[in-house]
Every structure is written in C-alpha cells, then in structure tokens.
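Need tokens for this chain, all 110 residues.
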Amino acid sequence: MEKMPIFNPGIETLDRKNLLELQLERLQIVVNQAYSNVDFYRRRFDETGLTPDDIKTRDDLQKIPFTTRKDLMDNYPYGMFAVPLRDVVRLQFPLGMYGNPIVIGYTRKI
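Here are the structure tokens for all 110 residues:
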C-alpha cells in the first residue's frame, strides 16, 4: 500500500488528545465568528437561547441549529458570509433546482 504524503506534519501527526483539543478550539472560533458577523446565525442562536460561550465541548455541536439549503437561498447572495467580501478569493455557485441560487465563498486562510 502506497503511503499518502503528509502536507502539514504539525497537524496531521497530532496525537488523539491534541487533535480533539484543536478541533474544539477551531469549532469555538467558527461559532464565535458566525455569531459576531452573520445576522442570520446571531438570530438563530438568540432564538434558541444559545450563545457561543455555551459551546464548551465537541458534544455541544449538537446544540447548534442546522443550516438548510433554504436558509442559504433566503440569504442570497452574501448574507451568510462571516468575512468582508474583499477577503473572499473564490466564489462558487452550485446549481439549484429551484429558487435563488446559493453562493459559497472561500477565503485564502482561516
């Protein structure tokens, strides 16, 4: 069996404990960024009585309300972006069957 190349040894070779800590840290960053910068997520969190500080473990991920394709279409084109449009380096417009399209924006780095 051929070995897969390692692109980021510092991350890809973490032991399980450190990997889980990194995943939680990044989850908390994403939740805070979404709550702070996206009106849609702030409303959804507030409606459920949830704050970013309530996300203390990876298991708390189940508390976060789902985002549906309809939510993405209803906030077309850039209502779900958590960064300024000037920071988006690539846009993707997946084809939809009905309604507004959705827009996915990519930044260079997190």
